[in-house]
């Protein structure tokens, strides 16, 4: 990507941008604070507990950092709860369902961000283990060994998971600096991702991509995050990832996580909240196809 890192910005945006203002931060954050799964299609007597968003991606792509960035926005300060960093092997070794606390009530919001170990060429995730994870059989903080098999006899295994135990949307994490050479640099990891997609597709689970570190491929975005949707370099990365993973361009969400910042940045907060809102909208789209089950099993007071 170095050859086009300095490419001039477009005069017009290639995707409709948010409003880069403090009001926009508060508006989107307020929408997420008030989020109730499928509220617009079920009656007030029905209450689906929480949606679960699964993060999947290569080691160092920024899964844990995204959770920390989301958490920081709601905490109102930089707050690193999930272990994050870079290295050869995954720092995350367990399947963890992270709650996000409301900035108003300090109570968990109606979604959980689920992290799991980063994909490694030597230690791919099996389709069998992913299916069990997506179906809700694996409990919170489950130690997911990359080469280990999981069965109903495994300690902690949930034999009869409810719909609210399931994964309702998957977010892939891809490092923008690796996009151009993805097929050459991480072919085994890429193949693992595509294999896992076949499981998700069969289960009709929505998939999005968080395209991280976009500031590292475009100097204009590095200077000002609001240039993100005018950057031809970022647009190229979005198109390339969409092509590689067979997803529509609108499912590729450019992102920059909090890394070197000591304080929150308003524009970064807007981008984070906007991407999180899109993720929740896709989780709702999955649940929409389960409305009959939700209305039958999730009556308030039962």
UniProtKB/TrEMBL annotation:
Top-rank lineage group of the source organism: Eukaryota
Organism field: Potamilus streckersoni
Protein name: Interferon-induced protein 44-like
Gene3D superfamilies documented for this protein: P-loop containing nucleotide triphosphate hydrolases
InterPro entries, per the entry: P-loop_NTPase (IPR027417)
Source organism phylogeny: Eukaryota, Metazoa, Spiralia, Lophotrochozoa, Mollusca
Coiled-coil zones: none
């Amino acid at each position: 990507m170095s050859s086009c890192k300095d490419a001039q910005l477009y005069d017009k945006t290639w995707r409709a941008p948010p409003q880069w203002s403090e009001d926009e931060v508060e508006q989107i954050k307020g929408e997420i604070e008030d989020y109730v799964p499928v509220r617009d299609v079920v009656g007030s007597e029905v209450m689906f507990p929480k949606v679960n968003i699964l993060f999947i991606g290569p080691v160092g792509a920024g899964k844990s950092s995204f959770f920390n960035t989301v958490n920081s926005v709601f905490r109102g300060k930089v707050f690193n709860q999930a272990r994050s960093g870079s290295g050869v092997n995954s720092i995350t070794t367990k399947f963890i369902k992270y709650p996000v606390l409301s900035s108003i009530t300090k109570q968990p919001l109606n979604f959980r961000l689920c992290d799991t170990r980063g994909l490694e060429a030597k230690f791919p995730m099996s389709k069998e283990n992913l299916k069990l994870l997506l179906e809700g059989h694996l409990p919170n903080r489950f130690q997911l060994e990359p080469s280990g098999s999981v069965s109903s006899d495994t300690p902690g295994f949930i034999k009869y998971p409810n719909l609210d135990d399931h994964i309702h949307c998957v977010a892939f994490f891809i490092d923008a600096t690796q996009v151009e050479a993805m097929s050459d640099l991480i072919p085994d990891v890429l193949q693992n991702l595509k294999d896992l997609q076949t499981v998700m597709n069969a289960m009709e689970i929505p998939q999005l991509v968080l395209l991280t570190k976009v500031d590292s491929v475009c100097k204009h975005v590095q200077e000002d995050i609001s240039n993100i949707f005018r950057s031809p370099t970022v647009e190229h990365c979005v198109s390339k990832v969409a092509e590689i993973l067979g997803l529509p361009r609108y499912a590729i969400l450019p992102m920059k996580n909090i890394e070197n910042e000591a304080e929150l940045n308003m524009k970064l907060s807007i981008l984070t909240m906007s991407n999180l809102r899109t993720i929740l909208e896709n989780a709702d789209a999955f649940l929409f196809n389960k409305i009959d089950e939700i209305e039958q099993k999730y009556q308030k007071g039962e």
